[in-house]
Every structure is written in C-alpha cells, then in structure tokens.
Design brief:
Layout (H helix, E strand, L loop, with lengths): L7 H20 L3 H18 L1 E11 L2 E10 L4 H8 L15 E8 L2 H16 L8 H15 L5 E8 L5 E8 L3 H23 L4 H6 L4 E13 L2 E11 L6 H18 L3 E8 L2 E6 L3 H12 L7 H9 L6 E4 L2 H7 L1
Antiparallel strand pairs: 1-2, 3-4, 3-10, 4-5, 5-9, 6-7, 7-8, 8-9
Helix pairs in contact: 1-2, 2-3, 2-4, 4-5, 5-6
Amino acid sequence: VSLYSRHGRKFERAIGKLQRMLKRRVRRGEVGEAGIMLLVGRWMGYLKSTRDLKLSVELKPALVRMSGSVAAKGPGNFATYLKQLSPGPAWGAKFIPADSGLIYLRRQGPQLTTQHLDESLAMIKGPLRGLVPEATLQKLRDLVVETYKHFPGEGAAGIWVNADGGLGAGGAARVTDAPKARAAWLKAIKLMVKEVNRVVTKLPPELKNQLNGASLRLRVRPGGLRVAGARGDLVELTIVWPRPKNRDARKKINEIKKRVTKVMGRRITLAVAFVNDTVLLTLGKDHRRRIAKMVAIAKGGPGTGVEKKVQSHAAGKRIVDLVHVPVAVLAEQV
C-alpha cells in the first residue's frame, strides 16, 4: 500500500505546515515544548519521506506476530535515519529474567543516541528554567555523551513483577572499555545527583504539594555493591515522609508510604555493575538478587532462557529494535 497513493499532496502540505509551525515555536524560545516539537518534527520528516508501507499480522493460539516494512522515498530524512542505524543480531536477551512481562532489545548507534539525548534535554529545559543553570545542563550533556563513546549500541531490558507485588526492571548493554565507561558514568551520575538534590530544595510550592509534603534524597555509592564476585555501584533514592499532626493527613501519608514500599521497597535502588564487556543494571526491591544472576551470566554462566524464545523470532534477522511480550507470563503477573 503506497502511503501517498491517494492523498499524497494534501498529506505533504499538512506535514510541511506543521513542521514550519514547530520551527517557529522553537525559534521563539518556547523551550518547555522544544523537545516535543523537535521529536514530532523529526517524525513528521520521516513520514514525509517514506513510501510503500506494508503491514501483516499473524494470529495463532499462543502467538501474535506483527511485522511491517517501509521504504525511503528518495534521499530524504528517512533515508538519512536508515543510514544511522546499526542493525545486527539480537544481543543481550540471555541477561533478561525469564519472568519479565516485557522484553526490549535495541541496537542504536551513537549519533542517534546523542540526538535523542538532545531532544530529552530540550523537553526538561522549560520545567527546570531558573532551577538549573544552562551551563550545568550543557556539562551534564557532555558527560553523558562522553559515556556513550564506550557503548557501541547493543542493549537489552526487561520489566517484571515479583511474587510479592514488587516492581523491577533491569538490563544490559555492551561496552568497549569497562573501566573508562564506569569512570565516565560515575562522573555523569554524580553531577546529576548533586543537581537533583539541589533542585528538590528549591521546588515551587505547587510541585511540593504534588509530593504530599515528602522530600527526596539521592545518593551515589561507588563500590557500594559487592555481589557474585563483582563490585558495582548503587544509586539510592530515599523518600523522607512527612509526619503531619492531623490524624487524617497522617493516615493518608501512611497509606501512600505503604503502597510505595510494597512496590519499590524502603528506598528505590539502582544497582550497576561492569563485568568484562558488559554493564548490568537492576532497579527495584530485588536488585541484588537479580544482578547477581546477571553477573554470573556475564562471567560465562548459562542464560535465563529468554534468548531461546527471542531467537525463535529473530533468527537470521538483522534487528534494530525488538519487543517481546510473553503473554502467558504477563497474564500471571496481572
């Protein structure tokens, strides 16, 4: 089916008009919306330079498989985007826990990663105006870009729900130089934590009210994780709950605290470990147990079995993004 077979000219005029409007708003300095404008504008550019969209759906009792294809129309934005991709074999699925309800594999080159970083920073500039100096955001960006230099682009992630109702997430990414990658990551995360802790103390009243009077404290613990013979780092977010004198208010805070603790634990912890040519991350109450298994796999141990399931769909294919949703696992967790 050609994307422009029937209404191509009208469609292109509408996209062009929207792109011009987005550029005007960005030039006017509406930085609060600049990131969204850049993102939408980029995808409008992709859409305008595509043709021959094809979609197919395969339905089976235990399988729903969707696939599609689209071609670039001349040397436009979409053709440029395709040249920036780093397709290749599926990587990293062996690290993802078998009880994950969502599995995501990605291969993305440094140029696209930097582009997405700039769009994300543009999105937060508006809300952070007056709270974080422009020079600090630029320094943070430069540190993150420096970290990206040691990441070729292969990554895998998963989200799971524990038996006790706790939410967890984690993944792995390939690195080219683990010591340099860790040093760069620590520089970036330390600056980020420093700024977050500073900004929290300066939040306007309307944002503080959304936190129900609670305050947040972030802490980086380099080398604070020792598991399965590996040493890693911890980033901990502690919620300091208020103790209102009013009985009803105190009851409401205690209910919120109980729900958050059940899902994420007494504090929200991110564990990071660099093992050989891999960086491993886990988030949630069971971060230690999960990352211990990942470390064992990175040292040559058997995978979780997810790689076999993914390989049945990705065998012989060069992927950029792959999303795998094990419906049976998801149904059990829901």
